[in-house]
Amino acid sequence: MRTRTLVLTLLALVSVPVVILFLIGLFFRGWFLLEPAAAEAPDRQESAPVTHQHVNETLGYSLHYPEGYSVEAQENGDIFVISTLMNHTDPRLEVTVGDAGGATAEAAADNFVGALAGFDVGRSTLIMNGTEAQVVDGVPGQEISRLVFLVHEGRLYQLSFTHADEQLGDAYDRMEQLFHIVVDSFQTIPVDAEATVPPPTSAEVDVADDGDRISDVATYEDQAAGFALDYPAGWYIVDVAPEIKASANNYTISFLSWQPAAGGAQGIPEHGTKVDVSVLPGPVATLQKAATAWKEQTAADPAQTILSEATTTTAGGLEAVRWSVQSSFGRVLVIMTVVDGRPILLSGQGDEALVEWMAHTLRPLGQAEYDDVPVIMNRGAPANHRCVAMIAEPGGQTLDVRSDPGEHHGVIAHLKNWAEIRQSAGGWHEIEIPQGGTGWVDRQQVTLSVGCDAQNE
Question: Measured between alpha carbons, how far is 110 from 54 in angstroms, rounded to an integer?
Answer without folding.
Answer: 29
